[in-house]
Amino acid sequence: MIEVRDLHRHFGGFHAVDGASLSIDKGTITGLIGPNGAGKSTLFNVIAGVLPPTSGQVLMEGEEITGLKPHELFDRGLLRTFQIAHEFHSMTVRENLMMVPPGQTGETLWNTWFSRKQIAAEEAALRDKADEVLDFLTISHLADERAGNLSGGQKKLLELGRTMMVDARVVFLDEVGAGVNRTLLGTIGDAIVRLNKERGYTFCLIEHDMDFIGRLCDPVIVMAEGHVLAEGSAEEVMANEQVIEAYLGTGLKNKGAA
């Protein structure tokens, strides 16, 4: 579904992404792991149009999408979440969800004067959709809570819910478990699996929690120093000597040898 070909992203003399090539197959939950500074988030930013590449290509279902803007990719069903959740903190959880779909009739001043019935009908439908999403994520009890009052894990669930308000096809999740307690992380994991199995979402996620990666992801791609180091199942990459040295550290490798 997504193919990355020899992708580079330089910041001056620093090569954050340095010739990365990988594929994300439709219908998979792909894990992307690697040490800090490996280029994972920069790779996500280039794929999702947040940053332009220095060189290389990104394709979606065979069509080149290199350099397209985030809103253009959004319209194609490619969405990206961030390590730090980006919610409208003064609005309720339900209102955050209702804000997502583009092209709403009430977005123009003219329509607010002359299309009130249409706007009311749209808002009612969006409210129903938002409530369905909240129920799916088991956070209906937070519908009227201000988003800024949510815990870190609840904000991550809200971000996942926002992808459900549109026809998402492939979602890039950046450190979905960061700052999330184990109970909520399990809830998030369950939601990702259900969206994958029941609604056909394709996911690629950056995560440092290897138990979480092992539970959800196949395949797992390992990055180091801006390029792809290894790929396989979670068990295969964790047994890879290069991965052990680059990702887990030589200390652990030597300990295992002892």
TrEMBL record:
<dbReference type="InterPro" id="IPR003593">
    <property type="entry name" value="AAA+_ATPase"/>
</dbReference>
<dbReference type="Pfam" id="PF00005">
    <property type="entry name" value="ABC_tran"/>
</dbReference>
<dbReference type="InterPro" id="IPR027417">
    <property type="entry name" value="P-loop_NTPase"/>
</dbReference>
<protein>
    <submittedName>
        <fullName>ABC transporter ATP-binding protein</fullName>
    </submittedName>
</protein>
<dbReference type="InterPro" id="IPR051120">
    <property type="entry name" value="ABC_AA/LPS_Transport"/>
</dbReference>
<dbReference type="Pfam" id="PF12399">
    <property type="entry name" value="BCA_ABC_TP_C"/>
</dbReference>
<feature type="domain" description="ABC transporter">
    <location>
        <begin position="2"/>
        <end position="250"/>
    </location>
</feature>
<dbReference type="InterPro" id="IPR032823">
    <property type="entry name" value="BCA_ABC_TP_C"/>
</dbReference>
<keyword id="KW-0813">Transport</keyword>
<dbReference type="InterPro" id="IPR017871">
    <property type="entry name" value="ABC_transporter-like_CS"/>
</dbReference>
<dbReference type="GO" id="GO:0005524">
    <property type="term" value="F:ATP binding"/>
</dbReference>
<keyword id="KW-0067">ATP-binding</keyword>
<dbReference type="InterPro" id="IPR003439">
    <property type="entry name" value="ABC_transporter-like_ATP-bd"/>
</dbReference>
<keyword id="KW-0547">Nucleotide-binding</keyword>
